[in-house]
């Protein structure tokens, strides 16, 4: 039996292309959980920023600072402090997730 020569452009180049595609897919698969974590942190951070903005708009109402609205003002200020702290925590979570993703991307090339 005689072997037919491989067509031009096949052979080791075909294997290299196939291997490169396999490695790229493995890289994407390895990075996906970190990308998901970054995306989730961004989404939550955006939601908290919207809450912050809504509270700031309420606190901008001058009538809120009248004596008759003291309890409402106190409640809004406490809520704002809580949301500010949550935003700070979420910003840190986002930063850590982003740094982990960057480090993994650099590691994988």
Explain this structure:
- This protein has 109 residues and is mainly α.
- The chain is built from 2 helices and no strands.
- The model has no long low-confidence stretch (mean pLDDT 88).
- α1 (12-59) runs antiparallel to α2 (70-108).
- 80% of the residues lie in helices and 0% in strands.
- It has helices at 12-59, 70-108.
Question: What's this model, at a glance?
Answer:
The chain is mainly alpha-helical and 109 residues long.
Shape: rod-shaped
Low-pLDDT parts are none
Alpha-carbon distance between the two ends: 45 Å
Q: How would you state the average pLDDT, rounded?
A: 88
Rg, Å, rounded: 27 Å
Class of secondary structure makeup: mainly alpha
List the helices and strands and how they pair.
Blueprint: H1 12-59, H2 70-108
Defining traits:
109 residues; single chain; 2 helices; mainly alpha; 80% helix; rod-shaped
């Amino acid at each position: 039996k005689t072997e037919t020569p491989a067509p031009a452009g096949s052979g080791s180049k075909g294997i290299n292309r196939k291997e490169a595609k396999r490695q790229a897919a493995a890289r994407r698969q390895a990075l996906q959980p970190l990308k998901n974590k970054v995306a989730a942190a961004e989404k939550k951070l955006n939601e908290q920023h919207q809450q912050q903005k809504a509270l700031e708009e309420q606190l901008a109402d001058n009538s809120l600072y009248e004596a008759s609205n003291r309890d409402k003002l106190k409640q809004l200020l406490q809520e704002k402090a809580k949301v500010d702290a949550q935003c700070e925590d979420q910003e840190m979570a986002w930063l850590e997730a982003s740094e982990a993703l960057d480090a993994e991307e650099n590691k994988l090339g």
